[in-house]
Amino acid sequence: MAWTIVELAQRLGATLAGGTEGLNAEITAVQPVKAATEHDLTFVADGKHEGAAKECRAGAVLVTKPIDGLAIPQLVVENVDAALIEVLGYFAPQLKPPAEGVDASARVGENVRLGPGSSIGPNVVIADDVEIGANTVLGSGCYIGEGSKIGSDCRLDSNVTVYHQCTIGNHVILQSGVRIGSIGFGYSFLDGSHRLVPHNGGVVLADFVEIGANTCVDRAKFGNTMVGAGTKIDNLVQIGHNVVIGKCCLIAAQVGVAGSCRLGNGVVLAGQVGLADNIEIGDGAMIGAQSGVISNVAAGKKLAWTPAVDVREAARVVANIFRLPTLSKQVKRLTAKVEELEAAKDHTGRG
User: Which range of residues forms the domain containing residue 145?
Assistant: First the structure.
């Protein structure tokens, strides 16, 4: 798919600025500033990339305000991120849409209700008493356990597993390898061995939840593990049993949330954050990458380090750690000086 610069400006509602030559040149892709060439559209979301934009070879650039000295056409928009999302859709690969109906190789149990427009791919297994909403797509190799419910306009990519008695809302996306409703890691040590505690609860994913590849959300011991509306979870994340996650949270790759944690709305967990069990994270809190959280976090707090502390305190800790080699040398010199002074006192008999 190709669009001229003028056509893109019209579709985005953008104002044209900068160079006026080549406005009818075709744009065929979107690329970062340093990689863009004459048939690419690039973007500058903040001032720190303006210098690189002046040296780039792109056909045009998305900006929020005109950049002085930039000769290539500039598409001035209110929000670069919003415009970028829209324009990337223009150049998305035109994949063949999934076929409506049930593939001949799929196995569908008894008392299964499939909504209109749903697509059940090759080798899908749907157990008894399952409900699938309208226009929902199950990719090849998916398994939906007994009594589970999936809403409308969902997309489950290949090899997703939804265990029994789980509920998934509308407009939910589960990427390949996601496991919803696996048994939680709850054991009691009895009579010399670890015995699994039964997990009789389920999992509830609210509307517009998106979960990345190979992430696991464990079922509850009782009640439900819950993920709030609009929350986005990255690849390779572990959500333990009886966890409750609020609305519009962002959870990055390799995060581990231990059992019975409660996250408020708008919480951000960066990559490889670990939460100890039974702690509460308040609304809007942000936890930096690789932090270990062992106690409750108040709303709006920004933490880093392990154990997690306020980001300003963490910055001071890191700064002092980098000073340790110099401080060690200073301590050695001072120790040697003290030893010399002590030796001089002993030699003179004074002291």
Answer: 102-310
